[in-house]
Specification:
Chain lengths: 85, 142
């Protein structure tokens, strides 16, 4: 029992670096459950990025304005399929 | 396959030439190389080093990445992602596009540093339809 309590957790080791992800080339058209789930994750990323840009005072940057439009469009698409797919 | 970073991109990230991946950051693009290109992670630093005059696929416009995001996920990783990319159909466009190269746009190919590339696994054509590229898990994590 003493040994169990005194056992130290190993120190975290940073083993991370650049981890490339894969593109999906010519996916099927139309909404799929996988596509729907991926769009939700993308929406969360876009909203976080938009919030970060607002904190930096970049509201007038053209790319940030485009991001705002993309957020609205993505929300509209997700709303159309919410509960259906 | 997945995106693999070029060695000189890694060097540049630490020597004062880092890419700004945020939404309001650098202009980032894709270009398509033909299957005749021999993958080389060690040598290229700029787009010009890829010899695009010989190896770049024909009949398309290099797409600019929009809605770029650089955000922290729940696993202590920053994720770079962007909106889906579509390369338009062109009846006289490439039939041998195989590698997607991710790069930072400068003023020309000689000052546009390459970041990473992905092997699409086989030749892709835009003669019969567009080439759609989606990134459900992002482009890369760090």
């Amino acid at each position: 029992l003493f040994g169990w309590f005194s056992k130290k957790k190993p120190a975290p080791v940073e083993t991370e670096g650049f981890k490339g992800e894969s593109l999906v080339v010519n996916p099927p058209t139309g909404m799929t459950p996988e596509r729907f789930a991926a769009m939700k994750v993308k929406l969360a990323r876009m909203e976080q990025a938009y919030s970060d840009e607002m904190k930096k005072g970049m509201a007038d940057h053209p790319a940030v304005k485009d991001l705002a439009k993309d957020i609205a469009m993505t929300k509209a698409i997700l709303a159309r399929y919410e509960g259906v797919i | 396959m997945a995106f693999l970073p070029f060695n000189k991109h890694k060097r540049r990230q630490g020597d004062g030439n880092a890419v700004n991946f945020s939404t309001s950051g650098d202009t980032l693009k894709f270009l398509i190389l033909k299957s005749s290109w021999t993958p080389d992670r060690a040598t290229p630093e700029f787009v010009a080093d890829l010899t695009p005059g010989t190896y770049e696929a024909a009949g398309y416009t290099r797409p600019t990445l929009s809605s770029k995001t650089w955000t922290l996920n729940g696993s202590n990783e920053y994720v770079f992602d962007c909106a889906d990319v579509q390369i338009a159909q062109n009846a006289s466009g490439f039939t041998d596009g195989r590698y997607v190269v991710f790069f930072k746009m400068g003023t020309n190919d000689s000052d546009s540093p390459v970041i990473a590339y992905e092997d699409m696994g086989s030749d892709k054509s835009i003669q019969g339809g567009p080439l759609d590229l989606q990134s459900p898990n992002g482009i890369f994590k760090f």
